[in-house]
């Protein structure tokens, strides 16, 4: 099957290897281009301090997006994560500050709230046979409404244990960054090594083939949406922690950022394809962009335009790369 | 070029350029196409004349699909020339190919199921009058077009209500209306029943008489014997020979595989042991009723019958994919609960479904991932999959099955049909079921891979497993089974030993009417030894 | 099967409605025995996402309870179309007066016209309604407040300051920004070195301020167009807030007032939303009874600093 006539193209320099690596990782290439451009345009961009800030600002969306990655890989969609994050943060803050529970207990109950909301999504999708779009759209509204009910419309202060999630460890190390990296590792392990993770790819790639191979599709869907809810709850705690306050409008619209991050990271909305590393890069692209636009003092009117263009370009780049194969 | 066909009576657009061999529509010379790492086509030569059926024959992965895609303008060749009507051309896109008069009918049809036949025929180019679609004319033109491919359906019928064979005809009719002079049919008969295939071959003969040049890809050597005017055989990306009409099956196989295949159906039967699978009185209202059969250790039991006889439905129900109303399924003495795939698996049953892309494989996942799908649960401890072990086992299985792949990480979508089918069987072999149900295991699979699959069946039965083989391919079901259960109208019409069995005897049972069945049951059929 | 499903759906709908009714009655005032008894006032709020409007609602509810009228509150969630629909619903419910807190001064016009057609008096609160007949306008001046903020910022610091803008295009952001620009001339000693939007949102305020600190490490002050963003900015500034960077907010929310008390926020602008809610209900009841109403009621805008913060808590 090999022809000796065409082996002339094999000698390549190290620059080519880097180029090929980047072209195989469209989102990463986009991130690098963005970072290089910004470090030229703004002297403050490349400082350690600013890069740490970018990491912190990416954290909430990244953790949300890891959860959404599970769902999208499994061929579904989760629109409720922003609202579930707000609800979980609010429950955690309210239980501690208003109901007087110990902070750690409140935190755990807040996380449980998120997982429970996800579980309800899973039930609606697997046993209720609702389209994921509709089930999670309903949850988006329900969770946001419950947040308002619990908070009575006003922000609630968080207990110390939640606030610590938004603070620094030592003088420089931001906890949100660490939490993001921790959950990146967890998401990678879940996707690559666990039964549920591998089942996500099978279900998202071909639900019928997964079923005929003995995978309990419904049971796994419950787990997948519950995981997404749990990750949303963690993101909600991070967000509340950073502000030392759980707001009724927290994380409003974040589901779209999370989905954008997942898609920028190379996942397919039709399921079966996606990686945690891609999602992390996607979240960083969005954070770098917002940070850079602030640093450059771009008019707020234009910022939204630029963000939209970059999302479209990032995904376009990836699509073109795939088609080129 | 002496055996020129009778010049076309009304060749559509038959303005054959002067100066070349009369009637030659398409000539391909020295086409080479390389994909990352692999040489798909290596200097292929190929010609199509007006009014001939030119068969492209080769094993999966031999380069047929790549050649078709070059003709269709999907792939750009690295080297070589394409001549249309004697003029060199560079086909840049599918639209360009169509404009040149080359139409390709793929296995996956490109009709819009929700629209009517007429709407599909004129999709995107409806005749208009006063800015509105001229419905009357659409209808008139549709009827005329359908007439040309011998399809008698109301043009107002939604396409989704048509059978797959009729849909193919609609697609062919659409291509003809676009003045296609070269019609490429990529394995059209793989999804058709025998009668439907018969119809298609007749229509192909008629189109040939109208002066169309047909390029026909099929794995059914008997079809080739019936219709081919010339056969170009591809092997490993090269054209290894052109055979004339009337060549023997053996000659075709030898050229295609590169060696002679002694026996197309190398079944080695042993002494059957205990009963492993027992289906008793299985009934699902309106689909099948009172179906009973047994599979013993070391035995291959075939299920034959016409399409719609309920064969696939019975095995799906037995495996727990679909529900049934009454009856029992017992595997190695354990009665299955019904409607529970995992329980069936635990008891030792496996199913290779008929639709490998729709039900058998996760096309977006890798070779290794697909091979490990069934055994993943067993390889999981505390929620974590033993991926190293899964990988090792997949590696061994891929090697044992001789799957042609660049590695375990290759996406399954990129593999040829035969290799894909090996993976579906392989994932079940890894689970080592007591009884494996194979539903149309060799559909769309080339001769070489077929024999390999049959050898897998032999190996299973030799190690004391049982196989239930559902197949529409009569020579296969007779050649590879020890007994054949024939189904008709959702019932078992009879059970035959394959010793000296002919296709006619099977067909006689398969076409039985329900009343006849009842009468026949009074006087039992020739019984198989085992029951 | 089909019938069953229909029955189940009907049962579900009934339950939902009952639930909604129960929730609704919990929120509204229970008509007392005073002379205003029996009147129903509709209050169409722009949003409840912002504590400012939550306080406005609380003030209105208190006043309604005191006067013994029923108050029906609707939240348009910052969507002008929602608001028009809600006001139309009020008119079909035959409420006696409608208080509109417009999502947008121009886009609320159809809502006010709908009420006018039904001969129901309208009171606008916080924002005016353009091109419509209203019985009374209860407002506090956002432009004036912005100007006061600039003057106050000039008193506590001098040099380069940054401005955190609200949602792009929102009227409160436009008015406060305009006032701030006017106030800069009066103050004379401060200048705006950067302007960025943080959507009136605390988390965005934190992120945007963090980024701006990278670009302008030596800034002296911050004007945030609401307290939520100011609180986010204070979080970003950490120890610098109140020491070498002065933050002035807007709205005087409870958390904002606490920050002023602690010295982290130099000042906030109090619009007294509770007072606005009370006044609006008072005017609406008068209008409903056909009594004389005051055309324009200006609820005073006040600068809240550490010295006078106790008055506002």
Brief digest:
Chain B is an alpha/beta fold. Residues 1-20 and 524-531 of chain B have low confidence and may be disordered. Chain C has two domains: 30-140 and 273-299, Rossmann fold (3-Layer(aba) Sandwich); 142-270, Rossmann fold (3-Layer(aba) Sandwich).
CATH architecture of chain A: Orthogonal Bundle
Indicate the CATH topology of chain A.
ABC transporter involved in vitamin B12 uptake, BtuC
Number of DSSP strands of chain C?
12
Strand order of the largest sheet of chain A: 1-4
Question: If interface size is counted as residues with C-beta under 8 Å from the partner's C-beta, which chains form the largest one?
Answer: A-B, 30 and 34 residues
Number of domains of chain C: 2
Q: In which range does the helix fraction of chain C lie? A: 40-55%
Biggest sheet architecture of chain A: 2 strands, antiparallel
Low-confidence stretches of chain C: 25-34
- The CATH topology of the largest domain in chain C is given as Rossmann fold
* Mean residue pLDDT of chain A: 88
Uncertain regions spanning at least 5 consecutive residues of chain A: 1-12
């Amino acid at each position: 099957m090999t022809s000796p006539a065409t082996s002339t193209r094999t000698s390549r320099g190290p620059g080519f290897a880097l180029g090929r690596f980047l072209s195989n990782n469209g989102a990463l290439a986009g991130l690098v281009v963005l970072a290089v451009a910004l470090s030229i345009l703004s002297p403050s961009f490349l400082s350690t301090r600013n890069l740490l800030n970018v990491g912190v600002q990416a954290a909430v969306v990244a953790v949300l997006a890891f959860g959404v990655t599970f769902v999208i890989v499994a061929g579904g969609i989760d629109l409720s994560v922003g609202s579930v994050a707000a609800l979980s943060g609010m429950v955690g803050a309210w239980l501690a500050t208003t109901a007087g529970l110990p902070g750690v207990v409140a935190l755990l109950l807040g996380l449980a709230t998120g997982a429970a909301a996800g579980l309800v999504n899973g039930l609606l999708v697997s046993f209720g046979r609702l389209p994921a779009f509709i089930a999670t759209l309903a949850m988006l509204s329900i969770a946001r409404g419950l947040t308002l009910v619990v908070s009575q419309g006003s922000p609630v202060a968080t207990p110390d244990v939640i606030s610590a999630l938004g603070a620094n460890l030592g003088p420089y190390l931001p906890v949100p960054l660490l939490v993001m990296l921790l959950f990146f590792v967890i998401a990678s392990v879940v996707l690559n090594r666990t039964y549920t993770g591998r089942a996500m790819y099978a279900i998202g790639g071909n639900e019928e083939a997964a079923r005929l191979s003995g995978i309990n599709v419904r049971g796994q869907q419950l787990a997948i949406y519950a995981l997404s809810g749990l990750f949303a709850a963690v993101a909600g705690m991070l967000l509340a922690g950073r502000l030392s306050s759980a707001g009724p409008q927290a994380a409003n619209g974040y589901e779209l950022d999370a989905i954008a991050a997942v898609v920028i990271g190379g996942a397919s909305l039709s399921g079966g394809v996606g990686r945690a590393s891609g999602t992390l890069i996607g979240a960083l692209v969005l954070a770098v962009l917002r940070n850079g636009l602030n640093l450059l003092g771009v008019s707020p009117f234009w910022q939204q335009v630029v963000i939209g263009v970059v999302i479209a370009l990032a995904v376009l780049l990836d699509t073109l790369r795939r088609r080129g194969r | 070029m002496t055996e020129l066909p009778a010049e076309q009576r009304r060749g559509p657009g038959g303005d054959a350029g002067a100066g070349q061999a009369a009637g030659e529509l398409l000539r391909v010379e020295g086409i080479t196409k390389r994909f990352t790492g692999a040489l798909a086509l290596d200097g292929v030569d190929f010609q199509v004349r007006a009014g001939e059926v030119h068969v492209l024959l080769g094993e999966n992965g031999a380069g047929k699909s790549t050649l078709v895609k070059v003709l269709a303008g999907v792939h750009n060749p690295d080297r070589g020339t394409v001549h249309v009507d004697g003029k060199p051309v560079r086909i840049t896109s599918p639209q360009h190919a169509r404009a040149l008069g080359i139409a390709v009918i793929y296995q996956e049809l490109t009709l819009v199921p929700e629209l009517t036949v007429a709407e599909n025929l004129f999709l995107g180019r409806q005749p208009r009058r006063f800015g509105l679609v001229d419905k009357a004319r659409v209808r008139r033109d549709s009827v005329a077009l359908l007439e040309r491919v011998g399809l008698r359906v109301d043009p107002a019928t939604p396409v989704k209500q048509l059978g797959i064979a009729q849909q193919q005809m609609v697609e062919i009719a659409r291509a003809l209306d676009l003045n296609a002079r070269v019609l490429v049919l990529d394995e059209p008969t793989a999804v058709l029943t025998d009668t439907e295939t018969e119809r298609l071959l007749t229509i192909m003969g008629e189109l040939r008489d109208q002066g169309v040049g047909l390029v026909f890809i099929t794995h059914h050597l008997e079809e080739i014997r019936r219709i081919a005017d010339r056969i170009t055989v591809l092997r490993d990306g090269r054209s290894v020979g052109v055979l004339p009409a009337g060549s023997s099956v053996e000659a075709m196989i030898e050229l295609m595989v590169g060696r002679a295949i002694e026996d197309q159906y190398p079944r080695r039967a042993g002494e059957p042991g205990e009963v492993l699978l027992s289906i008793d009185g299985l009934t699902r209202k309106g689909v099948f009723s009172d179906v009973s059969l047994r599979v013993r250790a070391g035995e291959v039991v075939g299920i034959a019958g016409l399409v719609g006889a309920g064969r696939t439905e019975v095995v799906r129900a037995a495996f727990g994919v679909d529900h049934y109303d009454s009856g029992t399924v017992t595997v190695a003495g354990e009665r299955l609960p019904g409607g529970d795939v995992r329980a069936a698996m635990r008891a030792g049953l496996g199913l290779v479904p008929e639709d490998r892309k729709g039900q058998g494989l996760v096309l977006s996942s890798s070779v290794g991932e697909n091979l490990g799908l069934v055994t993943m649960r067993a390889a999981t401890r505390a929620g974590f999959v033993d991926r190293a072990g899964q990988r090792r086992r997949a590696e061994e299985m891929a090697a044992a099955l001789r799957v042609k792949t660049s590695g375990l990480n290759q996406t399954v979508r990129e593999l040829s049909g035969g290799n894909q089918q090996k993976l579906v069987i392989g994932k079940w072999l890894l689970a080592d079921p007591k009884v494996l149900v194979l539903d149309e295991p060799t559909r769309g699979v080339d001769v070489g891979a077929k024999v390999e699959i049959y050898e897998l069946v032999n190996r299973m039965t030799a190690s004391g497993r049982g196989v239930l083989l559902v197949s529409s391919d009569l020579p296969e079901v007779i050649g590879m089974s020890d007994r054949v259960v024939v189904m008709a109208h959702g019932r078992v019409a009879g059970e035959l030993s394959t010793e000296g069995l002919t296709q006619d005897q099977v067909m006689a049972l398969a076409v039985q009417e329900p009343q006849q069945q009842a009468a026949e049951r009074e006087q039992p059929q020739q019984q198989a030894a085992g029951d | 099967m089909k019938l069953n499903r229909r029955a189940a759906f009907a049962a579900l709908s009934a339950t939902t409605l009952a639930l909604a009714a129960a929730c609704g009655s919990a929120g509204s005032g229970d008509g007392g025995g005073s002379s205003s008894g029996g009147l129903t006032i509709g209050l169409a709020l722009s949003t409840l996402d912002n504590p400012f409007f939550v306080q406005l609602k609380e003030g209105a509810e208190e006043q309604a309870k005191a006067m013994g009228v029923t108050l029906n509150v609707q939240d348009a969630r910052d969507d002008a179309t929602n608001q028009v629909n809600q006001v139309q619903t009020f008119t079909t419910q035959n409420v006696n007066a409608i208080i509109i807190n417009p999502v947008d001064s121009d886009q609320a016009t159809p809502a006010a016209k709908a009420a006018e057609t039904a001969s129901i008096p309208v009171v606008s609160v916080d924002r005016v309604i353009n091109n419509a007949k209203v019985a009374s306008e209860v407002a506090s001046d956002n432009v004036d407040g912005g100007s006061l903020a600039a003057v106050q910022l000039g008193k506590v610091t001098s040099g380069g300051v940054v401005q955190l803008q609200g949602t792009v295009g929102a009227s409160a952001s436009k008015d406060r920004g305009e006032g701030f620009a006017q106030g800069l001339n009066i103050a004379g000693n401060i200048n705006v070195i950067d302007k960025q939007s943080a959507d009136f949102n605390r988390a965005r305020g934190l992120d945007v301020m963090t980024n701006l600190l990278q670009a302008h490490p030596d800034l002296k002050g911050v004007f945030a167009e609401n307290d939520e963003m100011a609180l986010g900015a204070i979080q970003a500034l950490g120890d610098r807030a109140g020491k070498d960077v002065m933050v002035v907010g807007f709205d005087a929310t409870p958390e904002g007032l606490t920050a002023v008390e602690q010295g982290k926020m130099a000042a906030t602008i109090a619009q007294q939303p509770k007072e606005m809610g009370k006044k609006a209900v008072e005017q609406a009841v008068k209008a409903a009874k056909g009594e004389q109403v005051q055309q324009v009621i200006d609820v005073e805008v006040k600068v809240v600093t550490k010295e006078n913060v106790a008055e506002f808590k």
